[in-house]
Input
Amino acid sequence: MLLNHRNVTANEMLHLALNSREIHLIQRLRGMKKSYQGHEIQYQKMKNKDVLSWDEMIGHNKGITNDTKRFLMDVLAQPWAPKGGKVIELGCGTAPILRWLCKKKFEGLGVDVSKTAIKMAREQSKGFDIRFKRADVCNLSAEKSRTFDLAVDGHCLHCITQPEDRKRFLKNTFRLLKEGGLFIVMTMCAPVDRKMFSNLFQEQKLIDRIIYAPYDRATEYEGSRTFEGRDYIPTRYVGHCKSILTELRRARFHPRLIRYSHPVAQVPFSNLAVGALARKSFVKHPAS
Output
């Protein structure tokens, strides 16, 4: 591969010389942070601006969106869904979804890697039967197995960009759920309207199913890349909806309710919502 005459950074040289698996191994050995740990920076900004939730930050209402609420209501109305019990939200943020669920007879645990998010969640959840824990959602070994009736991915999975981390996330979730427990996944996915993406997010890049955003300290994080002399951090995974369903099935989750939406005005991404049961053995059910 020929290099042009501009200065080539060490990060670029690393990517030119090695494949992606080797790069991530070297970055991990260097003690780099996980890319999703960068959310702490965003939550600090939200707290300073008195923004209550991630949805509010991106222009939605202060609670949960109508689409999220509608899917939660639909999946919990199914005969195979739990009508109460223990729920864990993975990547809870400031916990608007968890508070909504705890109004439906659930007892909640919210987990997030951001200490500021957990602090904000506690402040907003006074009077609710919810406890919070700061932890890495890809490493929840301290929690007992087969504890929860319901696990919720409230838009966390698409923030985990590395394949091995995604496998750990799903494996942890399966371990935490009771046999036949329900896993609700709500995630961005492809297809993506790339023209709309380029117009709306001009500084960001979508490469190999991963969105990269420029950040001056990107090289502190795993998966960082350098493009045209500028460092970028991976922020979102937008795999095809079918490949995400395959990930779930390989982790022994059996989808029972699937809802998919195409890109719409001002939203260049597709969205996938799934209600799946944790089953040790395969039980064939038609997904609706």
Residues 10-278 form a domain with the Rossmann fold fold (CATH 3.40.50.150).
